[in-house]
Design a protein that fits this description.
globular; 2 domains
């Protein structure tokens, strides 16, 4: 199922087997049986979690409170990824 979602979502941008493997790994992180459990964390950074209150106003408030600079860790990357990127 995750593979189908990643293919539909990323379509022609997956150009080789390494891209497909990466996308499949990332999708498994976020689409899993524990995502609806209480206190499920998308990252060790508490700013990135599934909101408990799903009203639009609460979600917009949560988005506005998110950090303006994302750490590489939230994407499953090593902290050296920022160094390499820059």
């Amino acid at each position: 199922m995750n593979f189908i979602i990643s293919i539909i979502n990323y379509g022609g941008r997956i150009t080789d087997d390494k891209d497909a493997r990466l996308i499949e790994t990332l999708i498994k992180e976020y689409i899993n049986p524990n995502i609806d459990k209480e206190n499920f964390m998308l990252s060790s950074n508490s700013a990135y979690q599934i909101p408990k209150d799903l009203r639009l106003e609460s979600i917009l408030n949560m988005i506005n409170q998110m950090p303006t600079y994302e750490e590489a860790e939230i994407f499953g990357l090593n902290q050296n990824a920022n160094i390499i990127f820059n």
